[in-house]
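Bench notes, afternoon.
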Amino acid sequence: MAASAADRDYAANSADAAAWAADWSSWYGRYSARAAEQSERTVALYQKVADAMSRGRLPPTAMQDALGAFYKARGARYAERFTTLTTRFFSRIVEISAAYSREMADAVMPGMPSPPALPRLDASEPNAWFRQISEYSHSLGEHISSSYKSFLDRVASGRIDSEEVKDLAGRYLERRFPEYLRQLGMLYFDLLSELNDLRAEIEHDYLSGVVATAERPAAEEAFVLTLSGPSGSVAQATLSIDNVRDEPATIRCQAGNLRRADGIDGAFPARISVSPDPLELAPAQVGRLTVTVDLDDALAPGKLHVGTLRVVGHGETPLDIPLRVLATDRPTEPDRQSFA
């Protein structure tokens, strides 16, 4: 009889382990398939960005240039969603663990007073959530301490058989622990999937915005300052600035580094100057800035170079004006031949 019961227990435990392994494999398979699908879409968007850069429709710095505005516009919303996901995950861990511990105490230590009820944890309010968890942990710790002391006193007095407690605990763990692990595993993969969905959404929104910049019609593109001329010469362009404030304004400009639009080689400082610098404007006055660039040997002839001219006025948001600089090939002089 004992051998038969042991065989039945072994078979049941083996079946539970096999079922749990099958669940884990299924969860991982669904997670991997979804992650692969999302990665494929992200790679396609990266390819569109790279193609636009290679064609000169986007500067090589387009992604880092767009990152600040993107974070400012959407960072708070994404951070709120991340917080909600993680607090909900930990709320479920606390709920599952509390239920498991309470059931184990009832099975192994009958007669012990019930632990304090778990409050309703609201994952949408992180501050209230942490306060609830802190208060519940404190009250639960006090309950566990007093319960264990009372239980150990009963064991020491002989009212409870310690061997019987070990037997009850062992049988409970064999029966319930696999299900406990299954619940935690399912919760873990749910969190992974939701975090991966959030990551994929952020990448999609960010890269789609960068691609949309390259795909805008020319009439909708932001103002671009173009300077071109033969290699070795000097190119100039003018820029009108309007002071719309009711007080004088001081306008300053700062030119960033240039780099080839096709992404070859790195950025380098160019010889760009702006005059006058600073530009002093009275209220409602319109002024003109002259931007000059030396088309020296640092610029590859025939290759478009891109950069940014930052215009800063007192109390105004800085304006970044895209620069397009092109040094054309030097004109060649015709061969001179002399005839006797």
